[in-house]
Amino acid sequence: MDLEDFLSPDRVVIDLRAANKTALLRELARRASVELGISADTICAALQKREGLGSTGMGHGFAIPHTAVRDLRAPFGILARLEQPLDFDAIDGQPVDLVFLLLLPEASQGPQLNALASVARRFRDASILQQLRTAKDVRDVYEAMVAPVG
DSSP secondary-structure letter at 2? Predict the structure, then answer.
């Protein structure tokens, strides 16, 4: 599964403001809700439950909050670059400034399970992280995220 299958330029947000991790998850759930027609409260509750199992802050300033959502038919993503880094309880203790919200169908299997791995691979590449952080507009952020590597 390619990133373009679940991320589009209109789902990239730059300079997003959030007071804390909870507020950020709430805002991302709200944005997803508008497009998906699924309650923001339902999405946010699922995200909070997943975070309760362990932070999705992966280190190096990025987080991939993800969860399965009932009634979702295909993976759905939102990429956000935060205006100010915030504490996300990341494994390295560093604040997060790049966040990829990934929602998956409850019965995810096959290629859909690769969605999380696809995002994680991109975020593990230091040059991609640098491009995401320095891109001047939404289109450049999107292109940096989905461009072929190598």
Answer: -
**Pair 133, 140: CB distance under 8 Å:** no
For 34-92, how does the pLDDT look when each residue is reduced to its tens digit (9 = 90+)?
Answer: 999 999 999 999 999 999 999 999 999 999 999 999 889 899 999 999 999 999 999 99
Q: Are 4 and 143 in contact (CB under 8 A)?
A: no
Sequence-distant (6+) residues with CB within 8 A of 28 are 47, 65, 78, 80, 99, 101
**Residues with Cβ < 8 Å from 34, sequence gap 6 or more?**
none
Residues serving a catalytic function are 66
Rounded distance, CA 55 to CA 134, Å? Answer: 26
Those residues with Cβ within 8 angstroms of residue 142's Cβ, 6 or more apart along the chain or in another chain: 7, 8, 9, 12, 79
Rounded Cα distance between 110 and 16, Å, is 32
- DSSP letter at 37? -
